[in-house]
Design goal:
The structure holds 2 protein chains of 2 kinds. Helix content of chain A is about 20%, strand content about 35%. By secondary structure, chain A is of the alpha+beta class. Chain A has one domain: Alpha-Beta Plaits (2-Layer Sandwich). In chain A, the strands form 2 sheets. A 4-stranded antiparallel sheet of chain A has the order 2-5-1-6, covered by helices on one side. A two-stranded antiparallel ribbon of chain A has the order 3-4. Chain B is globular, with a radius of gyration of 26 Å. Classes of the chains: A alpha+beta, B mainly alpha. Chains A and B meet through β3 and β4 of A and α10 and α11 of B.
């Protein structure tokens, strides 16, 4: 079982969600996050005072999936979230030891 | 039978109740008039209901400027941990200054004929609120011009609220609430009341011939200069210059700006105190100046920094409104366009270049916008005043542009300097005393935690589902 965490642009969230749903992914979690990578931040000016905004707002999409569909999930996110410009985000993949559905107590892949 | 006896009893009771009044009527006492009735047979001053209707409306408009207008304008500019402290200052002052106004504020501004400050003629609403007349005593209507003195008192009272509320922008995010309340009562009494009396009730400055239509000096120079003194004496916010302190919600600020603009029509056009041609002219001048200033500030940003900002448009609007305030009833509307352009330009540089050069933390730019705007407006009144708007000099030209010579400009300059000196000196003394006794500033921990939680025990934004 894997956890895929994708940091993506806000306006790509809907596309990525729909594409993943078409691939049969049944659940995901989206979180508003702030951070920076190569894109760095931008500057904002208020009444002449300039502020450097280093942490840029992004969306983090968390998807948990079985090992055999991992590549499909990664490809889907990659294709839909990409614009080719700096700031498209990143995908992190990690092993997940277990998942439990609270309603039924099912565990593992059954709980996804 | 029982029914008839009950009826007879009722009639008897009614007759007994009516007896005293019938008797006194037969005794030939003077008829009792309702309060405020004119018993004079000469045609004395009478109320103009049209004027009164407009002035009551204008009064409400001016209150609307403080909250929600100013409260949102300022509230959006602070950090999110201090939004409630700003709303509280505005809201609390609406209550506090009103009570002070009703007890001794109005009389110190408008009572008597003193040179520097009013007397106690109207103490505790005496001769302001109506009283039931003694039999046979002639009752003067309680009027100021063509409106009830009560309306005048209410209208002017709203100015007594917003002026201290404006100062709050200077010490936002770090002032002790307790000290703030004491300071505002003292400041209203010892700065606002003398200035108001000297300009608007035949005092010293009015005697010089200085004019201030709706409060360029009384409201804006006084609050702006007091704000600068406050900012210098209380010191900068923790982390000023190193930590980012951008406005936390410019949406509030933009909404607040629109409300201030709306309320300002009551402030300026209402200062005509009648619903006449002058009120219309002041209304137009106010609107035109605000419009021109709203275009100017963001245009300067566009040219010098590449982007016109929302905060720039809002700041420009307020600068234009503050600047036209003393001039609204003296200049024609097209001059007001020029005044608006000059206001935005001057205030833009005051808020950017001047502030960063001297490094004071006038947090929400009260001095840069209201102080500078008010001073410029007072001076430009001497430049653009037109006899067509208000005939101040027996039909002779008034302002510099009209050919009235530099005399009026000189008097306006004197009045500006007088206002600055009085405000700075008295504000300094008040703050010095309060610093020694109550302390001006919250503790470092309280400031870092945010005033909402540390002073009021509440949060502005609670993210619960």
């Amino acid at each position: 079982m894997k956890k895929v965490e994708a940091i993506i642009r806000h306006f790509k969230l809907e596309d990525v969600k729909n594409a993943l749903a078409e691939e049969g992914i049944q659940g995901m979690t989206a979180v508003e996050v702030r951070g920076f990578g190569r894109q760095k931040g931008h500057s904002e000016t208020y009444r002449g005072t300039e502020y450097a905004v280093d942490f840029v707002p992004k969306v983090k999409l968390e998807v948990v999936c079985a090992d055999d569909v991992l590549q499909k999930v990664i490809d889907t996110i990659l294709h839909t979230a990409q614009t080719g410009q700096i700031g498209d985000g990143k995908i992190f993949v990690s092993d997940l030891s277990d998942a439990i559905r609270i309603r039924t107590g099912e565990t593992g892949n059954d709980a996804i | 039978m029982q029914k008839y006896s009950l009826l007879a009893l009722c009639l008897l009771v009614m007759a007994l109740l009516l007896l005293p009044s019938t008797l006194s009527g037969h005794e030939g006492n003077a008829p009792v008039y309702p309060p405020g009735t004119v018993i004079s047979d000469e045609s004395g001053p009478t109320i103009d209901t049209g004027d009164n209707a407009w002035m009551l409306m204008a009064t409400a408009l001016v209150l609307f400027m403080t909250a929600p207008g100013l409260a949102l304008f300022y509230g959006g500019l602070v950090r999110r941990k201090n939004i409630l402290s700003v709303l509280m200052q505005c809201t609390f002052l609406m209550g506090l200054m009103t009570i002070v106004w009703s007890i001794w504020g109005y009389t110190l501004c408008f009572g008597g004929d003193g040179l520097l400050i009013g007397d106690f003629e109207y103490l505790l609403m005496n001769k302001v609120q109506m009283t039931w007349p003694e039999p046979g005593v002639k009752v003067d209507p309680l009027l100021e011009g063509t409106i009830p003195r009560l309306t005048h008192m209410l209208f002017q009272g709203m100015f007594f609220i917003i002026t201290p509320a404006l100062i709050c922008g200077a010490f936002a995010e770090r002032m002790k609430f307790s000290t703030m309340t004491v300071f505002m009562v003292a400041w209203g009494t010892f700065v606002y009341c003398p200035l108001c009396h000297m300009f608007w009730d035949g005092g010293l400055l009015a005697g010089w011939g200085a004019v201030d239509f709706a409060g360029g000096a009384v409201v804006h120079i006084s609050c702006g200069c007091a704000a600068l003194v406050c900012a210098l004496m209380i010191g900068r916010r923790l982390g000023y210059g190193s930590d980012p302190m951008p406005p936390h919600n410019l949406t509030y600020t933009a909404v607040g700006t629109a409300m201030l603009w709306f309320g300002w029509f009551g402030f300026n056009a209402g200062s005509a105190l009648e619903a006449n041609q002058l009120a219309a002219s002041a209304f137009a001048a106010t609107h035109f100046s605000a419009a021109a200033a709203t275009l100017t500030w963001p245009s300067i940003e566009w040219l010098t920094r590449g982007k016109p900002t929302v905060l720039g448009a809002c700041s420009g609007a307020i600068a234009g409104l503050a600047c036209i305030t003393p001039a609204a009833g003296y200049v024609d509307p097209m001059s007001a366009v020029l005044i608006g352009i000059l206001a935005s330009t001057a205030c833009y540089f005051a808020c950017t270049a001047l502030k960063s050069k001297f490094g004071y933390d006038d947090s929400l730019d009260v001095f840069g916008i209201h102080g500078i705007g008010g001073m410029l407006g007072m001076l430009l009144t001497g430049v653009f005043a037109s006899r067509a708007v208000q005939n101040l000099n027996n039909g002779n030209p008034v302002g510099l542009v009209e050919g009235g010579g530099p005399g009026m400009l000189g008097v306006q300059l004197m009045a500006v300097l007088f206002t600055i000196v009085l405000t700075v000196v008295v504000t300094f003394i008040l703050l010095w005393i309060l610093e020694k006794t109550m302390g001006l500033r919250v503790s470092q921990d309280e400031e870092m935690e945010g005033l909402d939680l540390s002073l009021h025990g509440e949060e502005g934004y609670i993210n619960l589902p």
